[in-house]
Amino acid sequence: MRRMPAEWEPQEGILLCFPHNGRDWPGKYGAIQWAFVEFILKITRWETVFLIVRDPTQEERVTRMLEKAHVPMRRVSFITRRTDRSWMRDSGPIIVEHAGRREALAFHFNAWAKYRNFKYDRGVPAAVAGHLGLGLSQVTHKGKPVVLEGGAIDVNGQGSLLTTEECLLHPEIQVRNPGFGKSDYEAVFREYLGVTNTIWLGNGVAGDDTHGHIDDLARFVSADTIVAIRDQDPESPNYHALEDNWARLENARLETGRKPNLVALPVPREILFDEVSLPSSYANFLILNKLVLVPTFNDPMDRIALNTLAGCFPGREVIGMGCTDLIWGFGTLHCLSQQIPAARDGSVPV
Could you tell me which of 149, 157, 183, 187 has the fewest CB atoms within 10 Å of its CB? Predict the structure, then answer.
């Protein structure tokens, strides 16, 4: 039976793809590249970054940038692969345990059922699996490839999974798998991720380009604890959706039959850029072996979010990283990354 490890379990490293598509951050592409260098620097304090670059020329340029920032290059492992975008949470493979070994899963990426340019991204799982020396399995259901992004799910590693109805079940907008119902997704989760218990939330936040990804809403921080964002402003466009999600969590059960412990995360003030409301969320944090990186937005709520998450991860350092530029691409730290779980023997390269 397969099992998807929780994000806080031992990691070999983090998969990233250095930005090259400036259209994802129009007008901010230069700043984004240096923000990415900072992101890599913070991760490589503790573990390896498996970094996708599109060609040797980009690798040379990125190497110079990383060296200028004093990134420890022994903890950067380059993968040469052309991509359409840098959102590795969604186009990268999901690594699971299967028959005592790690296995890479390839879902049928289609750019969130929204954009046309995804053919290069669709090859990312095979490239990463080859680089890591892992077997690769294409996820199918009823004889068809399954579309699913990593940002649409979050697991506790014990059999429970969080997702949203807006993302996976909406009948008209960004439909990933036409004709799929809850039972179809739950069958896929059971077979490929070892999930026996799915917790369905409702809608996502306004401005979310993915149409309801869970990693902007609610996350497991331990086997029995979930953090979820709540908006204190009844006039906010997200207020009612987030209150509905909180009510669902209060009525939810874990795979053990017990209720989860719930921790509320605040939301920052609305960020507008070029008349666009951006989906800024503290729930888009990234868990590393000894560190939790939290997106911050130059907002008074930054401190509250950091303190809240520090209480959830007593054995890890919790630090913020400014993401007011990154969020212009409609995602931040978790969206851009994908964890590579350590081998089953628990060894973690230093």
Answer: 183
* Strand 261-265 relative to strand 271-273, pairing: unpaired
Over 90: is that where the pLDDT of 274 sits?
A: no
Handedness of CA 235, 241, 247, 250 (dihedral sign): negative
In a domain, 163, yes or no: no
List of residues 6+ apart from 129 with CB closer than 8 A: 93, 104, 106, 135, 136
pLDDT in tens, 78-106: 999 999 999 999 999 999 999 999 999 99
Domains held by the chain: number: 1
CB 126 within 8 A of CB 133: no
Q: How many residues does the chain have?
A: 350
Q: Write the DSSP string, 70-125.
A: T--GGGEEEEE---S---HHHHSPEEEEETTEEEEEE----HHHH-S--TTGGGHH
Paired tokens of 305: 């979010």
What three-state secondary structure class fits 162? strand
Burial-class residue 291 by CB neighbours within 10 Å (0-12, 13-18, 19+).
middle
| Region 151-163 average pLDDT | 98
Domain membership flag for residue 91: yes
Q: Is the pLDDT of residue 291 over 50?
A: yes
Give the whole-angstrom CA distance, residue 43 versus residue 36. 11
Question: CA-CA distances (angstroms) from residue 333 to 84, 98, 156, 258?
Answer: 18, 28, 19, 31
Q: What is the mean pLDDT of the chain?
A: 95
**What CATH number does residue 69 fall under?**
3.75.10.10
DSSP string, 221-276: EETTEEEEE----TTSTTHHHHHHHHHHHHT---TTSSPPEEEEE--PPPEEETTE
* pLDDT of 113 over the 60 cut: yes
> Amino acid identity of 298?
N
Q: Which domain holds residue 128?
A: 11-150+225-233+260-341
In a domain? residue 208: no
